[in-house]
Prior knowledge:
The protein has a 7-stranded mixed sheet with strand order 6-5-4-3-2-1-14. The chain has helices at residues 21-35, 43-53, 56-59, 86-98, 114-117, 142-149, 220-230, 244-248, 259-269, 285-302, and strands at 5-10, 68-72, 78-81, 104-108, 132-137, 165-170, 177-179, 182-189, 195-202, 205-210, 235-239, 273-277, 309-312, 318-320. The chain is an alpha/beta fold. The protein is globular. The chain binds zinc ion (ZN) (2 copies). The site of one zinc ion (ZN) has 8 residues, from helix 5.
Amino acid sequence: MSLLRVRFWGTRGSIPVTIAPDAIKRRLVAALTRAVGRGLDTPERIEAFVEQELDFSVRQTFGGNSSCVQLDHGGDEYVLCDLGSGARAFGNHVLATRGGRPGTFHVFMSHTHWDHINGFPFFMPAYIPGNTITIYGCHAWLEEAFRRQHGAPSFPVEFAQLGASVRFIRLEADRPYDLAGFRVTAKRQHHSGDSYGYRFQRDGRTVVYSTDSEHKLDDPAEATAFAEFFRDADLVIFDAQYSLADAVSIKADWGHSSNVVGVELCQLARARHLCMFHHEPTYDDEKIAAVLAETRRFEEITRGDHTVQVSAAWDGMEIEL
Length: 321
Ligand SMILES: [Zn+2]
Ligand SMILES: [Zn+2]
């Protein structure tokens, strides 16, 4: 049984962001203050101190690329969810590791909002003859959305000039397909213009990719339907763009969900791991870390006989299943 590895290339919601310029100085001051009197006189000691004693939000960043997640089942073909700006980093990684050998890419699109397609014009494998890219999605305008951003007046290269063979395949929701080495089922979600979640199954393992979805748990039929979609999943990658306070007040009906809804759905579904994804662009690393801590606490105090592991995705994170 091959390992299933999930790699996050882009985890930010709505628009790519970078770490704020003044945050670097703040972090240096925080780190150096903690280091005073610690006798950190070799690179090894410094490395261990950084790794073990500094908080994630001091030593690292959740990152700023928009949605792109890779499901790696160990085969030669690549499987992705969405082509946000993280696809640029993924494409460059492929070129660096694969050399000139042609590759096959399968991409499952949640929807065509800009933050989910804006990496494609910078996805280098699309420019290389011999590569094959299949883009799956449920929207009628799937192909048009990609063609429209790729060419004048928005981009210097026309879609028709791409060297790779690119094709689009429409999927129907609620119907299982055998594609790209997985059993794949799509489900329609509440979002402006609709979005689709995907349930991927292979070798007895299940990953759900559910981003850009506003869940209304006060509707019991809907809560049950999503709990079934998430049922017994090993990993649920979940749009938890907002903290609960934001979700129920100013940002109700903005098309996204909260950390708390994610926990409740995963508990109902008896899913094993909730990974918060599509982070709010105005949240800095400290805020995302605080939401993660709050979510873990909420999971703990509402836990019955089933534990849900909670994490927050960052660009470069890998989860092995
Ligand atoms: Zn989005
Ligand atoms: Zn969206």
